[in-house]
Structure formats: structure tokens, C-alpha cells
Design brief:
- This protein has 256 residues and is mainly alpha-helical.
- The chain is built from 15 helices and no strands.
- The chain has a domain of 146 residues.
Length: 256
């Protein structure tokens, strides 16, 4: 089974213009891909690294939009299949399919460096990237989470991102992203779903909602709907997706 980070790198390599080749070489250096660390089981065991340069990584990360541009990426069917089979969460191909090329570049950088950077440094790097990054950099980081090693480490950062009132950033973690369903505790996942309804995000875009649906989430959704009705406000048309009755009806429906 091929490493998902290497698949991302291959997909990126096939898409970038010739003028971006020097940037791609920098990516290999700043992520340790070209530092003889690939496949070394001890590469992430120490508390610190001697090869990693934070400033150079951040400069390369920031430069992605200038070098790669914002042209939309469309995955080929074989690329989608390879990503889905690479051992990461189901639905992960949708994280990068249809996104901008600069975002793929940043997701690839984070996926690559997560294989080689010691865990404490990786957590610190993500925090710096999120706190210092602009909106597009934050979106890329959140979409990179399913590709990172030991993904459960980054739940606090992902939960924090859900508190944003900026729709593009919220969508980056909540929509077409398998990370919340895979790692969020029930309370945080339920809060994400309710906020999606509040912000007008289609519930069908929340990957894994069908298996994370629960009686508690259904109750919270009904309370939300009651408050909306009492205030004379509309109720999201897709709120029925959170009802356990909806699931039972679908399971018992007789095929035509």
C-alpha cells in the first residue's frame, strides 16, 4: 500500500507548471523528503530534529499561492482510487479533489513533513501555521489533517477551528473532510453538526454523518428546530437527516 503523502506528491508533481519545479525541490528539502529520512523508523522518535528549519518551511508554505496559483484540481479516477486505498479515512480523496493547486501544495507539504518531524515539533508547527496563516493557509491545514500521522493529536486544533465565524474556514474542517467523524468526541461532533445548520451548510457535506448519528444528536437538532420556530425563523430543510426515524425508514424501505 502506497503512502498517501507520496501519492499527494506525485499528483502535485504531475500538475505543477515548469516554473514551479524549483519550489517543488524546496518542498523536498524543507519537509525532509530529500534528507535521507524516508522509511527510517526512528525519524520521529526523538523530541527534536536537526534538519528542520521552521522559517524556511513557513516561507515555502506561504509561497505556494504565488508559485502554484489557484487553478482548480480535478483528480483522475485512478488517482481517487489510489488515495482511497492508501490507508487513510474513507472519503479522503474529496479533501483535495476540486480544490486549488496551491492548497494541494500545502496539504502535500504538511503530509510529507508529518512522516518525518518528531511529534512535539509537528504539533508546534501546525499551531504556528494556523495562528500565523491567512485564511487560505488555515483552510489547507484543516484539509491536511486526515493525511497526518497520529491524527488524534490534532483534535484540539480542529475543534478550535470549528468556533470560527468565517464560513470558508469552517467548511474546510466540516465539509468533505473525514477528520471530524474519525476523531471528534461525540459532543464536539454534535456541536459541529449544529453549527453547520446554523451557518447554512448542507448536512450532506459532512462525511460520516450517517454513522455518527445518535439519539443525543437527534435531540439537540429537535431543540434547535424548536428554538428556530419559536423565534419565527426557518428550519433547515435537511434537518430530517439527523432523525433516527429517518435512518430506520431508509433501512426498512422495500426496493422498487
Amino acid at each position: 500500500m502506497q503512502d498517501a503523502s507520496l501519492l499527494l506528491f506525485e499528483i502535485l508533481s504531475r500538475r505543477i507548471p515548469p516554473s514551479a519545479r524549483s519550489w517543488l525541490e524546496r518542498v523536498e528539502r524543507v519537509t525532509g523528503t530529500g534528507a535521507g529520512l524516508v522509511g527510517r523508523p526512528d525519524a520521529r522518535e526523538s523530541e527534536s530534529s536537526t534538519w528542520f528549519d521552521l522559517d524556511r518551511f513557513l516561507a515555502t508554505f506561504t509561497a505556494a499561492v504565488r508559485v502554484l496559483g489557484r487553478a482548480q484540481l480535478g483528480l483522475h479516477p485512478d488517482e481517487r482510487d489510489a488515495l482511497e486505498a492508501a490507508g487513510v479515512a474513507a472519503g479522503v480523496a474529496g479533501v483535495v479533489d476540486g480544490r486549488a493547486l496551491d492548497e494541494l501544495g500545502r496539504v502535500t507539504m504538511l503530509a510529507q513533513v508529518s512522516r518525518r518531524l518528531p511529534a512535539p515539533e509537528l504539533e508546534s508547527l501546525l499551531r504556528v501555521c494556523y495562528e500565523q496563516g491567512d485564511g487560505r493557509e488555515r483552510q489547507a491545514l484543516l484539509r491536511a489533517l486526515p493525511f497526518l500521522t497520529e491524527g488524534e493529536r490534532f483534535v484540539p486544533l480542529a475543534v478550535e477551528a470549528c468556533r470560527t465565524n468565517e464560513l470558508p474556514i469552517f467548511e474546510a474542517i466540516a465539509c468533505d473532510n473525514p477528520y471530524p467523524a474519525a476523531y471528534f468526541p461525540d459532543l464536539n461532533f454534535n456541536q459541529l453538526v449544529l453549527k453547520a445548520m446554523f451557518m447554512g451548510v448542507a448536512l450532506a457535506r459532512i462525511i460520516g454523518l450517517d454513522r455518527r448519528r445518535s439519539g443525543e444528536l437527534a435531540r439537540m437538532a429537535e431543540d434547535f428546530a424548536s428554538e428556530r420556530r419559536a423565534a419565527g425563523r426557518s428550519v433547515p430543510a435537511d434537518i430530517g437527516l439527523l432523525s433516527l426515524d429517518h435512518e430506520r425508514e431508509r433501512a426498512t424501505r422495500i426496493p422498487e
